[in-house]
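Deliverable D5.2: sample structural annotation.
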Amino acid sequence: MRRFQRTAFAIGALVTLLVLGADLSGLFRWMEDWTLDLRFRHARWERDPLGDQIRLVGIDDASLDSIGRWPWPRARLAGAVEEVARAGARVMAFDVLFTEPESGTVGDARLARAMSGRGGVGAPAGPATRTVLALNVVLERSLQARWDTPKGRDALERLTRGCRGGIDRPIETILDEGKVVEPWRSLILDRPNAFKSLAAWNALMEDERAGRPPADLEAFVRAMQGGLARDRHMGDFSERRLLEEAWQRLQSWREVERRLRQDPGARGSLQDTPPIPEMAMAASSFGVVNAETDRFDGRLRRVKPFFPTDHGWAPHLGVASALAFLGHSSSEPLVRDGALTLDGRTWPLLGDRLPIDWPTELLQGYGDGGDGPLAVIRIGRLVELADKREQLERQKQRQFEAAADLVLHSDVLAELRDRWPEAHRDGQARKAIIERWYEQDYGDEYLRTQLAMQAGGPLARGRAMAEWVRLRQAIDDLAEMGQTRPTVTELQLRHAAIPRERDAAALMAEFLKLDRAIPAGQAAIAAEEAVLRDIFSDRLVFFGFTATGTMADMVSTIFDPRTPGVFAHVVVADMILNGRGLFFVPAWVAPLAIVILGLTAAVVAARFGAGAGFVALVALLAVYAGVLGVVVFDRGEIVFPMAAPVSAGLLSWICATADVAILDRREKRRISKQFRARVSSQLVDLLTENPKALSMEGVERETSILFGDLAGFTTISERLGGPEVVKTLNLYMGAMTRELTLEHAYVNKFLGDGLLAFWSAFAPEPRQREYAVRAAIQCQRLVKEIGERPDRAGLPPITLRLGIATGKVVIGDCGAPPDLNDYTVIGDAVNLASRLESANKQFGTSILVDGHTAEGAGAAGLPLLRLGRVVVVGQSVPVEVAEVCMEADPSERIRMTEAAVQAFARCDHEAARRLFGELEARFGSSKTAHAFLDAMDNPADLRDGVLRLRAK
């Protein structure tokens, strides 16, 4: 067994945390949806179709080809609806919008009657069919998003007030009166009629909410013309249609909101549209047909069970249809505690959406090109049946009319009876004509009316009735004379020479032809009625598009990128009717599964080789995905997270295994690349032989840290162009880096015109304080030498400020493993070194070190000037500070300065002032002296002999 690789485990753990963070931020949602689609398609072992309560009337390609392009005349559509109601459907749900009236016909009225009736004459006894109509709500509320701001709402209110003063006036006049300003004014001028319509609707809704709605349409029209004072229009005006549409829309919403659950907090869009009033009054309930697909791939996976509108909460069409089928009202509060609850059953919601529990197949027969065995019926079949029924009614009508006309020819019939051939006495006697006569009851009120109209006048009514009796007797006698019924051809040929006889014969021929056709048509209709009754009786019947043309209503689902949208409503209704639904495990399960699988995979990779580790990983993921992703989903419809946990296990194992496989080679290459330019070549060779000298986790070690900054470089940057600035910076930094590496330093990073280096980067270095001070002195010499070069003549001088501190810090990888791009140091000593570099400006020095560094440098004989205890800016604890002196510094300056500092430390301020004065008198003005003199002028600094710096 391999040695446990802690680095590999750490990488696997880090990958696991990254996957966890990505999952919590929602980055894995699209992949989780994809895995759920796979489970729907492949993880169900048994057939799980929809229930038997639902049928679909499809507006399909074949029906459109035979009947014509959509929209059809609503009278024809009404015929199909009547047939479904006649067949005994319990609920009809329409995934078809009826938001616009049909002009110039009675189609709307007929369709509304079909939606509210019991199926027409001859329908089986039973409860009336309930109807669920479609509502169109705007999901992407572009207009409202733009105008739903304080200024936008104010502009709409001003527009509405202006329109109340006379909507028929020019839009510029209305905007001027309402004092509508830019940018709203330009937006309104771009679409004046649309905004006038919006203003009319707003005005109507304001009056409705205020409890003072107009009494009728004309009152509303007058009010929007400015009231009675401007009631001057004698006919139509262009804006009247807008007002009529708003009024009709209000009437529709009044019908709709009676069936919705009311909530003052529900807000919809101004573009939400109900059915026209005739349809709204005929409907039992309403449902929203709009669908919100996934933004990532456009696939439909979830639906809102209820949608907010300005008139209440409207259910999804599938939900509304199921509620109507079960006898529930859409106004019931069904959503509680993040779930849809009905009759003791619960459907959990994800946010505010209901996940769709797709069946293993859609409705039986869909996609076979014709009528399904039971579930899917072409609407053309119903229209054809309705056409046959209307044709039958026309045939009966014509038979009525033929019988009435025969009354006027009863005397001719008597003559025909006398000359009827003897040959027709053969065969079985059967009074078919008179039997059919009595069966059809041609003496009903309709025929009597026809007779009275043809005989003319009230005085002729009695005579017409007498002729009616004679006609019946003539037909009776005619049937008795012949044992078989005369044919149409015989009647036409035998009496063609006699005009009146020919007319009577034609009427009798037509009567006999209809007498044969009507029973045949009745039989065919009865047979089709029986079939449809078996299909639709006591069912929930959806009407929707299954056509594939340009007007098709298609959505992307697990079945097909172009699935008829009505199927989404069908499936949602089926879920409620049959208690089907998905149960998603609690949200904490996903993070737990990610951590368990990810860390387990990391352990496997860190402990085993690639071969054995792969087998163990496959077994681990197969158990998780197979049991929880397949078996539990198939048997219990419980959804466990798959994408993020499996990804965590797989990615953790891959990354950790890759680290184990290439660790040695990568470490050598990384060390050589990262440190060769920053440390001595001997140290690089040592690190490549012993990579463990690098701390990945961070170790605590005493370290000397150096911060450097080029003073005056900003001035040079202003003088030089960009390329020259970079060239100059590289010149200085390159020289200092070479000197620092020679003194065993690790140059950690470059900070613009500064740098950071530290010692003991990979192992303790006993002489690090001496090395640090020597390196600082040498860097100062190099900077001075570069500034004195002839090619630098004429440029502002550059000086170097350095700060050095030594103390316990943490050294390690503080960047982005495994590349170790920032092997650095963290701790208080780092901050102190940075503060000492900055403090050079106040002391007028070039190199400042802390007391611990000074001890090591002093032991090595390096020149130092001790400045006592100082509190640097940004810290509160005093530290010993010393200046590193250059070789040119006179020893007398060092001695005198230290004497003055010691006097300040003893709080002998009088002596300190005197000594600093003598120092300046001999060596000139000194920033060091001014720092102490300024402190002695501040009473707060006179208490403990500590110098407190207050400026960087």
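Annotation notes: Confidence is low (pLDDT under 50) at residues 121-126, 228-234, 412-461, 480-499. Residues 86 and 121 are 8 Å apart (CA to CA).
The annotation will be released with the project's public dataset once the embargo ends.
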